[in-house]
Each structure stands twice: as structure tokens, then as C-alpha cells.
Amino acid sequence: MIVCGQLAEVGLDAARRLAVEYLFGAEGVDRCWSWRPDLVLSALLGERVVGVCFASPGSGTGIVVDGIAVDGSFAGRGIGSKLLSAWEVAARATGFTEVTVGSAGGYVEHFYEKNGYRPVEYCVTVPCAVDVNGPGGVDVTRVRVCGDFSLVNIASTSGRDPDAKAAALAACGGTHLSVIYAKSLTGPTN
Q1: What is the pLDDT of residue 33?
Q2: Which of 26, 29, 97, 187 makes a 20 to 30 Å CA pair with 20?
Q3: What three-state secondary structure class fits 169?
Q4: Which residue, among 58, 106, 50, 109, has the nearest Cα to 82 in the 3D structure?
């Protein structure tokens, strides 16, 4: 039986391994562990860590899911949904009211939508510094210049629509697009 809850320090190395294998590295696990170890949650099968979910601070009472990973040999069993739900309960209990997460596409977008997240923005990577007003023809919500590239956030409710994604990329001259999803942690159901 899978049990989801706060990661015990003894499971930290296993959580790091999952983050390295299925995400972009273990740094996010370590940052969250240093900031809020109570918000590094694991899915356990017996004593084996088969999933991990962790976050970083958002703005105000918001929080950002930095990563959720489930061991591939346990994929498709609902473990990710159970883990995310347990993490949302923990985040809500500590006073967070909204969670956001970025997705670069594929099945992950379906996963977040299935779990009650709604698309709110596209984040387009543009290979140059852009004007603070952003490109024309799109509803730019924020531009962050990061050295020789920029991150342009564009309001969206289109989610996985490939035509909307292509239009956002073209409008910005971008090279990469992520969909930003959000979910309220207030109210009777999550």
C-alpha cells in the first residue's frame, strides 16, 4: 500500500535520486528541504521512496510546485495524484492559498488538468533581451530579462491547445514554451 506524507530525512537520498532521474536534478529537493522540510512529501511503498513532491516560495500566499516525480516502474497507478493531493493538503495547512506549476508539455499537462489545475499563462523563452512591454499582439503579463534571453509570460486559458501554443511562440519569436497552471488551495475541495 502506498502511503504519502512528509519525507523523513532517512529518505532524502532516495528523493534526490528520483529528482535526478525524472526531473532536472536534486537541487530543488535540497532547496525545499532547507526552506520547508515539511513540504517535501514522499510516496512510500513500505520503506521504499517511490515518489517525491517539493516546492519553492511563490508570491504572497502562493507556492510553486518545483517538482513531482514517481518511479517509472510505478507509473499509471495514481501515485502521482495521491502524492500531489497530500502535498496540497500540507501546503494548505501551512497557510498557502494558491499553487502554481509549469509544464513543458505532454502527459504532464493532462496530469495537472486532471488534478484540478487550470492554465493561466504561457511562459515563452526568447533568445534575446526583449523590451519590458514585450512583443505586440499578445497579452503580456510579465517579462524577465535573464542575461542573453528573456522569459515572457502571456495570459492564457488555452492550455494544451497546440495552435494557441504555436501562436504564442510565433508572437514572441520564442524557442521554448511552458504552460503555467494554477490551483486555489482554499474552499471545500482541492
Answers
A1: 97
A2: 97
A3: helix
A4: 50
